[in-house]
C-alpha cells in the first residue's frame, strides 16, 4: 500500500542494518508497513503502531476481517463524486462501523493523488486487484500486535533489553503532510529523548537536515547518511536523489559481520554492498564529524 513517506525505496538499506539479536520488533510509526511486510516473519514478537486511528483500524480489519473488508470494497466506485462523498464522511462526526470506516479509508488511499487522501487521483485502478493483497496481508499480520498509541507511551510499554524499535516519524518540516497526526518540534525532541534513554536498540530514518543532526549528536549514537530516489521529483527530474539519515544506538554492521564469520566462503551480497558504502556523518566513538566510511 502506498503511503506518504513510505519506505519502499529504502527498505533494503534499513533491513540490512537490523541488529544481530532481538526478540521484540516494534514499528513505532507504522504507516504503510513497508519495512514490516519486507521483513522476514521470524519468531520475534512484532508490534505495528500508528497514531493515526484510521490506519490502526484498517490494519486490524485486514488482520481480523479480510472477507468483510473486501465485500465493502467490492462495489466502491473510482469516481470523483464518490471520492468526495467518502472524504466528507470520514471528516464528519458520523459514527461509522469499523469495517466500513476501514473500507472508506482504503478507498481514499487507493484513489487519491499520490496517496495524499485529499484530492482525487483520476487514475484507472480496479479495487478487485487488491483483494489478493489484502488476504496476503491478513496472513502476515496474524501474530502482529496492532497499536494506536502515542510513540512515547508505546516505547515505554515495550522497552526491554531485547527490544528493537524501528522509527520512521514524520520528517522535519514535512509534518503537515500527514492527517490526524499533529507532529511538532517538541515531538521531535520528545522522540529523541525517549529513544536515547531506552534499554533496547533503535534504528531511526529521517530527512537529512541540520536540526536532526544536532538533535541526535549524542554519546552512543551513530548517524549515517544515505540517499534514495525521490518519487515525486521523478516526474520533473529523472534520477533525483533525496538525502536521508539513518540513526542508531548500536553497530549496524554486526549482523553482516556475523554472517561472514559463519560462512566458509566470502560471499558478496547486496547487504554487504550496502553497508560497505555507508557514510558515517557522526559518531561519539570517534568524537568527530566524519565524511567518509569507517575503515
Q: Outline of this structure?
A:
This protein has 295 residues and is α/β, with parallel strands linked by helices. Helices cover 37% and strands 16% of the residues.
Number of helices: 12
Fraction of helical residues: 25-40%
- Report, as a whole number of angstroms, the end-to-end distance: 39 Å
What is the string of helix and strand elements?
HEHEHHHHHEHEHEHEEHHEE
Q: List unreliable stretches of 5+ residues.
A: 286-295
Total beta strands: 9
Return the average pLDDT rounded to an integer: 86
Architecture of the largest domain, according to CATH? 3-Layer(aba) Sandwich
Class of secondary structure makeup: alpha/beta
Could you say how many structural domains there are in total? Answer: 2
Question: What is the CA-based Rg, rounded?
Answer: 20 Å
